[in-house]
Each structure stands twice: as C-alpha cells, then as structure tokens.
Amino acid sequence: MDLLSDLIGAMRVGRPTVSLAAADPSWGSGVPASDGARFYVVIAGRLHVNEPAVTAGPGDAVLFPHGTAHTLANAGESPATFLSGEYRLDRARPHPLFQDLPGLVTLPANPERYPALHTSAGLLRDELGAHAYGRDVVVPALLDVVFVHLIRASVSESAGLRSTGWCAALADETIARSLRALHERPADPWTVASLGAQAGLSRAAFARRFTAMVGQPPLTYLTWWRLTVAARLLQTTDLPLSAIASRSGYGSAYAFANAFKREFGISAGRFRQRAAAG
C-alpha cells in the first residue's frame, strides 16, 4: 500500500456516512465535536461555516480533519444543497499526519487544480440523488474516493505553507522515499543508515532531515508504525502472536509482547480481547 492508504487504513473505524442535504434560507444548525473527520461540499447556494467563519459557494469543499465542533447556516437568500459526510477515525492512536493538518481546511472550487476531487464529489452527489440499484455498494466506495481526494488536497495545501511537518515530508521526495520503504517493509531490519540510503543521504544528514520534518527520529517513528501495524493485525485477524511479531519486525513473540505492552499499557492478548468485545 502507499503511504496515505496506510495511514487512513490504520485510523479508519466503523462505517463512514454521507448525505445530500438541503437548507432553507433561514436554516442553521450546530454540529457537535466527533471522533471522525467531517466534510461538506457545496452543490448549490452558499453555506456559512462558523468556528472559524468561512462562507462556501458552489464547488467549495470544507474539511474538519479533527471533527471540531462548529455551526452551519445557509448564507444566501435561496436554498442551499450540499454533501455532508463523516469519516470515522480512531482518535486513540492518531497518525501524526492527521495531527499535522489544521483544524479547518477550505478548498475553493478549482476543477483545474483538483479535478479528481470535483469529479468524484459530482459522482457521489449524482448517486445519492438517483436511488438506483446498487447504491449501497457505490456510495461507500465513492465516499472513500472523495475522502482520499480531500486529504490529498489538504496535504498539498498545507505543504505549500510549511517547510516542516508531515505534509511537507510527503511533498519532499527524499524523505518520502524512506517513509515509503519502511511502510512497505516494516519488518525489515532497518537502521538509520539503511533508511538514509533509501533517501540518498548520509546517515547523519538523513537523521537530521527526517527528524526536522517528521518530528521524530527515524527509528522512533519506525517503532511507532510497527506497533500500529501490529495493533491493526490484532484487531482484524486471528494470526498468532508469533506471526504478528514477524510481520511487524520483532524477532520473537516475547520481544513483541514486551514492546507492545510498553507502548499500549496492556498485553497484546488483552488488547485483542477488548477489540473483539468492542
């Protein structure tokens, strides 16, 4: 999997939801904070989003990556129509990329800059309005596509404003190469030097650049990602601990069990039981 797919897959929980909403000129509503990421794409009319204040017109997209509480209101004299979606995410172990995104991302209508976002949002709008056969299969798939394009656009916008942080790291091909390598092969016996070789940098230069951009030393992030992979395998598979240890880069189930308990404060077996019960 690629980096962004990995990150979304590691945080995604439950089933995302979306609706095609209509708002009369006098309509307004408060939206409480949630564990998910909320988004809106205006189809017609104008929508006022408060906290902070933003007015969105046709084709504009608004994303709350952290599920921040906010208010919505029709900002015009005619009815407004918009897509309203929520993508549920596990906030107990958020990936640093999502933490790096601002609380509110606004993406003005710009089909030339983000054509895939506008195309996929249009397809989702049409599918929600059609009530055709197969809708229950098509809508979740299109919702995934729209959400990925929203995050891609948000990362691109944020990378242009900052020289450090995860968004900038993904835009920096040197560091992105090392991140792709450790995500594709987390079980490999990586060292700072071997990760630096993936980036085409010396050990010292790579360590400095990686830490400055990502906010963690290379091996600290590698350990965090290995245990994140392990937690997801515990939640979604029946693999024995020895197999999970091997897939996540630990030489034995004993070493893995100790590392997992240090990180999560609970044994791997108990973590799996809680996930199954939940």
Automatic annotation (TrEMBL):
<feature type="domain" description="HTH araC/xylS-type">
    <location>
        <begin position="176"/>
        <end position="274"/>
    </location>
</feature>
<dbReference type="Pfam" id="PF12833">
    <property type="entry name" value="HTH_18"/>
</dbReference>
<dbReference type="InterPro" id="IPR014710">
    <property type="entry name" value="RmlC-like_jellyroll"/>
</dbReference>
<dbReference type="InterPro" id="IPR032783">
    <property type="entry name" value="AraC_lig"/>
</dbReference>
<keyword id="KW-0804">Transcription</keyword>
<dbReference type="Pfam" id="PF12852">
    <property type="entry name" value="Cupin_6"/>
</dbReference>
<dbReference type="InterPro" id="IPR018060">
    <property type="entry name" value="HTH_AraC"/>
</dbReference>
<dbReference type="InterPro" id="IPR018062">
    <property type="entry name" value="HTH_AraC-typ_CS"/>
</dbReference>
<dbReference type="InterPro" id="IPR011051">
    <property type="entry name" value="RmlC_Cupin_sf"/>
</dbReference>
<protein>
    <submittedName>
        <fullName>AraC-like DNA-binding protein</fullName>
    </submittedName>
</protein>
<keyword id="KW-0238">DNA-binding</keyword>
<dbReference type="InterPro" id="IPR050204">
    <property type="entry name" value="AraC_XylS_family_regulators"/>
</dbReference>
<dbReference type="GO" id="GO:0043565">
    <property type="term" value="F:sequence-specific DNA binding"/>
</dbReference>
<dbReference type="InterPro" id="IPR009057">
    <property type="entry name" value="Homeodomain-like_sf"/>
</dbReference>
<dbReference type="GO" id="GO:0003700">
    <property type="term" value="F:DNA-binding transcription factor activity"/>
</dbReference>
<keyword id="KW-0805">Transcription regulation</keyword>
